[in-house]
Amino acid sequence: MADKKGLSYKARRRWALVVLLIGLPLYIMVATVLGGLLVDYPVVLQLLVFVVLGIIWILPFKSLFRGIGQADPDAPKDE
Q1: Is residue 57 part of a domain?
Q2: Which long-range contacts link 48-53 to residues 24+ away (Cβ below 8 Å)?
Q3: Is there a domain that residue 17 lies in?
Q4: Alpha carbons 68 and 48: distance in angstroms, whole number
Q5: Cα distance between residue 17 and residue 6, in whole Å
Q6: Where are the transmembrane segments (predicted)?
Q7: Torsion angle, CA of 55/59/64/67, rounded to 10 degrees?
Q8: What is the reported pTM?
Q9: Within 10 A of 26 (CB to CB), how many other CB atoms are there?
Q10: Among 4, 14, 1, which residue's Cα sits nearest to residue 64?
Q11: What tens digit of pLDDT does each residue of 30-72 get?
């Protein structure tokens, strides 16, 4: 039976970099366009929309970014 561990540490690091360098700027552009549509609404509503949009982008990628800043657990240990 195949191991269901998921992506390796190196693959997660690469995908995290792709998300940050390509996906996040695209998401920022979409959020800015949506914010531009709210020009006639109160500032508090605009702020609320930007805060919600600023939080929800990370939810699908939460497991991808978990542990990325730590040492590679798959690397051989130096003795």
Answers
A1: yes
A2: none
A3: no
A4: 29
A5: 17
A6: 15-37, 43-61
A7: 60
A8: 0.72
A9: 9
A10: 14
A11: 988 988 899 999 999 989 999 999 999 889 888 888 888 887 7
